[in-house]
Amino acid sequence: MAEGLDWESLTEATSGSVGALVSTTVLYPLDTCKTKYQAEVQSHGRQKYRNLSDVLWEAISKRQFLSLYQGLGTKNLQSFISQFVYFYSYSYLKRLYLQKSGAKSVGTKANLVAAAAAGACMVVVTHPLDTASSRMQTSAYGKSKGLWETLSEGYSFWSEAYNGLSISLLLTVNPAIQYTVFDQLKQRLLKKQSSKVLQENSESSPAALSAFTAFVLGAISKSVSTVLTYPAIRCKVMIQSADSEDNPDKDTKSKPPKTVLDAFSSICRKEGLPGFFKGLQAQILKTILSSALLLMIKEKLSKYTWISMLAFRQFLLVSQKSTRSH
Q1: Which domains are delineated in the chain?
Q2: pTM of this prediction?
Q3: DSSP string, 78-107
């Protein structure tokens, strides 16, 4: 069992997941404000939120600041699972490519393919949790249901749990671009260190970037991918959002679009071309901070996680030998 596991991929997945948990928790109020702002569509020339700060001040004025954390548990669960699946798949596919091709390094094209494939695996596995967390974040303050209640809504939820899956699969190009740019920049920087530390021994810990360098590279790589894919991001948020409960007339309660075409036509009809970029600044701020923080933590944890994995593997090997001897 110990020899059959891909320990390097497991290390990447574990450190990436822990980084995702920390970054998600730290930036969650900003994420909730961003999601609420993106989900709102201008109606009859009126809109509730003119900018991101309006969402924050509404929560403060209603004494519902803690409601900005509604859905945090679900978001953390989704972040942990998605990043674990992503980093494990991404690392495994790159190592598999090197083994099969005999190449010394992974090129840009192979990196993009590996990142896109890993992203597709991540989306399929975690999409229902993504939908549930988006519904919680866009619910009225103090009225968000828990994960179990959301999942227990029966056919109503499960029939819509994979709404927006196609656009989410399309958005796998986002992390594919991000991590490919990050990886290429990282490799160039680490080449300067490779002459000092020869990694002939497979048991040695992988080289790591400094926290500041990882943060900067994470910000640069994410900013490019976010700008290029933002219209699709906004459509996805609208599809996954909860029904609006702000209108006192329940019969005219706003319903979120169910398909990409519905979201696209709604934005075109009510907001025009600028509507596709509503909330772009908030998205850039949140995603850059989140991704940079995640990658910074991941890089700093990788060494210690690798050492822990080696110790755990040694423990398993000793246990197996002891069992066989008996």
Answers
A1: 7-174+206-245+252-325 (1.50.40.10)
A2: 0.66
A3: HHHHHHHHHHHHHHHHHHHHHHHH--SS--
